[in-house]
Amino acid sequence: MMNVINYPERAQWNELLQRPVMDSTILEEQIRRIISDVAGRGDEALMDYTRTFDRVELPSIEVGRKEIREAAGVVSGELKHAIEEAQWNIQTFHKKQITRSEIIVTTAGVRCWQKSVPIDRVGLYIPGGTAPLLSTALMLGIPAKLAGCPEVVICTPPGTSGKINPAISYIAGLLGIDRVFRVGGAQAIAAMAYGTETIPAVNKIFGPGNQYVTMAKQIVSRNRVAIDLPAGPSELAVVADDSSNPAFVASDLLSQAEHGTDSQVLLLTDSRELIRQVRDQIERQLESLPRKEIATGSLAHSKIILLRDQQEIMEMVNLYAPEHLIIATKNFRDLAEKVVNAGSVFLGNYTPESAGDYASGTNHTLPTNGWAHAFSGVNMDSFIKKITFQEISRYGLHNIGDAVMILAEAEQLQAHSNSVAIRLNTEEDE
Amino acid sequence: MMNVINYPERAQWNELLQRPVMDSTILEEQIRRIISDVAGRGDEALMDYTRTFDRVELPSIEVGRKEIREAAGVVSGELKHAIEEAQWNIQTFHKKQITRSEIIVTTAGVRCWQKSVPIDRVGLYIPGGTAPLLSTALMLGIPAKLAGCPEVVICTPPGTSGKINPAISYIAGLLGIDRVFRVGGAQAIAAMAYGTETIPAVNKIFGPGNQYVTMAKQIVSRNRVAIDLPAGPSELAVVADDSSNPAFVASDLLSQAEHGTDSQVLLLTDSRELIRQVRDQIERQLESLPRKEIATGSLAHSKIILLRDQQEIMEMVNLYAPEHLIIATKNFRDLAEKVVNAGSVFLGNYTPESAGDYASGTNHTLPTNGWAHAFSGVNMDSFIKKITFQEISRYGLHNIGDAVMILAEAEQLQAHSNSVAIRLNTEEDE
């Protein structure tokens, strides 16, 4: 069960909130070898690793149109409907993030603007395994298509039949994903970074994954390809008080804990009574969970922290910078104003994290491991580049020319200054 | 002088546009040692490295208020005026990028929004050395302050007197930078990543630097702190035709070439005549440059490429993804529409790169080394996080609850489903 820490001293906070550190040196060597093998041998290496890791002989690396069409027949009407409802909300929220370019005259004759241009080729990694993350296909595929990325591909590991999860196929068809490949693990990341005969090299790789996938993304991001976010295990912090419903709070903590034994769960409160009730509820609700063992493992290193007041609570929240933050206190709107570091925030008694995981409309690909101090979750910006443009008239260059030349010379860059001088000293020829 | 390549075959393009690859393995080991030394010994290590690398005994690590005030007396009125003019334009352009949060009702009872929150603590690295980049202090300091980052610090190497460049001090005072430290190199990056007795640990590090600084930024970004951009030598591609002014084009190529011998310079054109004239002009203008030797070194590995038509030219531009792109053709507006991969674009005959380097208003911290395929240059987004919020009413949860539960169960995450069910099955108590 979760450890309870009462009124910890400020000096202990950093240690208390520390995330587990993985020693990844050995892992890195192993993943480097896979990456350079895929870079060198291409498709053949992909077939080999799939045979070894997924225990399946691939009929083909690419999922054909026919398999994607057939998936629509396998997915239940109920699931299709849920997918479309989530799609609508995610689309609605992300579409509003598209901003129009505006020309700004910074000074007479000097026109500057930012233009949002979609990234050419993006690769989405969708984990399979024990919990096939079909929702991730929605969360990454929808903004990629809304942004207008010309080529959007998915890599996802095959099941033992050699087929990929039919719901993922269905979503790929629904969203108009350009190509889908049945490859998972570090080998999929290597393929999207370097390209193979079948899989195109992309400019940016998105998506969660196990430690192999995560390490592969980190390695290829050093010199080859952009990635969405640095990764770490999923996290939830819940802020609650006397007014919160302990059964709801317990259900939220458990929903995070069932992700994996490395999941991080925190409850921050100023109420001893709530702690008692939540622990009670956790024990009760845990019993019937299919993933009880995983949740128990995660809870064992999770923490309930009793703090003096809401001020202390919000200070600790911002120091921890949780991926997900539920604020279930009566005055949740006041506390929401105080959030500085978090990935996504869930307000009130009727906003469970799972709403945002699937269907409220916000993105569920979020910064973990304290990266919320500096990173946003995936949003429309993640799929575009903002290119700046400037167009200066002869008059405009006269206007700013002196400043440019003086600054350039202060930096001892004479040629920079010359490029202005030569223009201003030339007679206008037309 | 620059190599001329006539009508290269498509199959050669990738090789032709290849950037130099640095073998950084040995460097990495050395930088790792500096970083862990600074992480362990703090200020003492900073004093030691400054003695070794900058050959100066530091009186203090922090630049005091007095030194900053005194800088105003040392900087010429002319330079101050140029700084303020640049400041105005940079502020005007960046201020327009601030977007307001809007609440989006994705479906009845489900309210979602994005809130832009400034990053708590940011560190700006401003190189000193042969060309003290005071313009970089403006380009990073202005958006950091506009974004409202609560703590903005600068690290910049000391001169042999132990003082930092007075223009950088002056800018720090002008912009209201919170603290300034006289430390440079990998040790400065380590200090901002780990914190020392004097220098606070920051959440994100910005700024250019030599290969030591660059490698240090890359290392600390793996698990400690965010960085602005992956780095590489500065680059310029110029697109020109018969209508372009060869003297202007030459001056632009030279302004890029003087940065360093590793600078990348490309001229893409469909005009043989222009090539002849530009080469002529380069030879002529090169003579009088103080940094002639550096420029000559850079030009030796730079390229002039003659292509069949503007379509080919723009395809090559987008394949190369230059940091800076000048389009000096008659129809520059048409070609601007075709730019997909570039950091910042300069249009027409009167828009030299140096205008954007200093004073047009756009940012000069831009993606190099092909990263413009996936990265934007530094802009207001670089200093904020977009945190998502959602507030769902009981009615709203009824609305999306089924979709959430069905999707959660399709992912075999029962506890996720439960967190909705338990709320919907509980009687509303108020």
Notes on the structure:
By secondary structure, chain A is of the alpha/beta class. Chain A has 3 domains: 147 residues, Rossmann fold, CATH 3.40.50; 203 residues, Rossmann fold (3-Layer(aba) Sandwich), CATH 3.40.50; 32 residues, no CATH class. Chain A is built from 17 helices and 14 strands. In chain A, the strands form 3 sheets. Chain A has a 6-stranded parallel β-sheet, sandwiched between helices. In chain A, strands 6-5-4-7-8 form a 5-stranded parallel β-sheet, with helices on both faces. Chain A has a 3-stranded antiparallel β-sheet with strand order 2-3-14. In chain A, β7, α9 and β8 form a beta-alpha-beta unit. β14 of chain A pairs parallel with β13 of chain B, so a sheet runs across the interface.
- Assign the structural class of chain A, choosing from mainly alpha, mainly beta, alpha/beta, alpha+beta, or little secondary structure: alpha/beta
Strand order of the largest sheet of chain A: 1-11-10-9-12-13
Oligomerization: homodimer
Gap between N and C termini of chain A, in Å? 81 Å
Low-confidence stretches of chain A: none
Number of helices of chain A: 17
Q: How many structural domains does the protein architecture of chain A include?
A: 3
Helix content of chain A: 40-55%
Beta-strand residue fraction of chain A: 15-25%
CATH topology of the largest domain in chain A: Rossmann fold
Gyration radius from CA atoms of chain A, angstroms: 25 Å
Number of strands of chain A: 14
Hey, which two chains have the biggest interface? A-B, 125 and 125 residues
Shape of chain A: globular
CATH superfamily of the largest domain in chain A: Nitrogenase molybdenum iron protein domain
Nearest-integer average pLDDT of chain A: 95
CATH architecture of the largest domain in chain A: 3-Layer(aba) Sandwich
The main pleated sheet of chain A reads as: 6 strands, parallel
CATH class category name of the largest domain in chain A: Alpha Beta
